[in-house]
Design a protein that fits this description.
Layout lengths: L4 E2 L12 H4 E5 L4 H12 L5 E4 L6 H8 L8 E4 L2 E4 L3 H10 L3 E2 L9 H10 L1
Parallel strand pairs: 2-3
Antiparallel strand pairs: 1-6, 2-4, 4-5
């Protein structure tokens, strides 16, 4: 299992992104895919803004205007990228593309245990 580190993301050299404004999730409380997306974001300690389309007036129409008319949830807006009902892998990949999670530097060098396992397997 690979360890993942959370990093700060910046649009510009001096301007920090307000994470809850950068990641917006349109969803509902009863949706298992929404719960799964929440768990992925929580796992990486990533803050986000959640908009419940069942409770907020006009939220579903806004979501549909952003995702090409789909009523599927969750719909996540991450920067300029829109994800509709993403898998864990797709969501994690999008977070990596946006620079919100990166592999720790120490993972680029194999640990002693990794070397031993490699020798045994070969």
């Amino acid at each position: 299992m690979m360890n993942i580190a959370v990093t700060k993301f910046t649009f510009k050299e001096k301007e920090r992104v307000n994470m809850p404004d950068y990641i917006v999730m349109y969803g509902v409380q009863w949706c298992p895919d929404c719960s799964r997306a929440r768990r992925v974001l929580k796992r990486y300690g990533i803050e986000y803004k959640e908009i419940d389309i069942d409770r907020e007036s006009g939220a579903e129409a806004k979501m549909r205007s952003l995702n090409g008319g789909s009523g599927k949830v969750p719909t996540l807006i991450i920067g300029e990228e829109t994800l509709i009902e993403p898998s864990d892998h797709d969501l994690t990949s999008a977070l990596r593309r946006q620079g919100l999670i990166v592999e720790p530097e120490e993972q680029s060098n194999p640990t002693m245990l990794d070397r031993i396992i490699s020798v045994i397997r070969n």
